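Propose amino acids for all 173 sites.
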C-alpha cells in the first residue's frame, strides 16, 4: 500500500531483480552457472495520468506506457521472458535451483536531493553557517528516508533435475 501511494504521488519506484541459476553439488560448494539482472523503473505522470515503465536488461531496454494501474503492476511482477541460460548448456540429470532477489526502492536519496536543489533556489540569502547546519540535518533525513523505503526480498526455488526434452515433445508444448 505504501509503495502504491508513493507511485501515485509521482515518485519513481525502482525494482532491481537478480536471478541466479545454481548447480547443486553433493559433496562440494554449489556452483553459480548463470546470473541475470533486471531493473524496472515505474513512474506515474500525475498530469497525463499515464504509468511509464522502463525495463533494463543486459542486452536491451524496453519502454511501456498505460493508463491502467493493473498493467503497470503486471510489468514489474510478471517477468516470464528472462532467459538465464541456454538449455543446451545444462548438464543432463544435473540438479539445479534458482535464487531470486528483489530490491524495491520507493523513495531514493536522489529524489530527496532533487527536492533539495529545488528548495535551495529560494535560499540564496541564508548565511553560510545556517545553510551548513540545515544541509547536515537534511543529509541525515535523506539517509533515514531512503533506508526506510528500501526493501529486499529473496527466494530460493526447490531443487530440480534437468531432463532433456526431445524435439518432438518440445514442438507439442
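Proposal:
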Amino acid at each position: 500500500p505504501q509503495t502504491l501511494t508513493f507511485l501515485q504521488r509521482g515518485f519513481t519506484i525502482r525494482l532491481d531483480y537478480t536471478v541466479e541459476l545454481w548447480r547443486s553439488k553433493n559433496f562440494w560448494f554449489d556452483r553459480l552457472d548463470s546470473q541475470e539482472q533486471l531493473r524496472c523503473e515505474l513512474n506515474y505522470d500525475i498530469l497525463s495520468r499515464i504509468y511509464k515503465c522502463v525495463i533494463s536488461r543486459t542486452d536491451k531496454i524496453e519502454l511501456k506506457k498505460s493508463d491502467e494501474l493493473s498493467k503497470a503492476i503486471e510489468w514489474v511482477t510478471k517477468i516470464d521472458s528472462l532467459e538465464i541460460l541456454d538449455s543446451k548448456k545444462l548438464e543432463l540429470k544435473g540438479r539445479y535451483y534458482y535464487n531470486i532477489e528483489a530490491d524495491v526502492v520507493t523513495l531514493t536519496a536522489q529524489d530527496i536531493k532533487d527536492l533539495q536543489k529545488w528548495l535551495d533556489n529560494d535560499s540564496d540569502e541564508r548565511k553560510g553557517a545556517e545553510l551548513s547546519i540545515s544541509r547536515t540535518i537534511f543529509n541525515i533525513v535523506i539517509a533515514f528516508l531512503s533506508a526506510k523505503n528500501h526493501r529486499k526480498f529473496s527466494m530460493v526455488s526447490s531443487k530440480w533435475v534437468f531432463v532433456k526434452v526431445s524435439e518432438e515433445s518440445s514442438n507439442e508444448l
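The chain has five helices and seven strands. The helical segments are 2-8, 69-77, 109-120, 128-148, 167-172.
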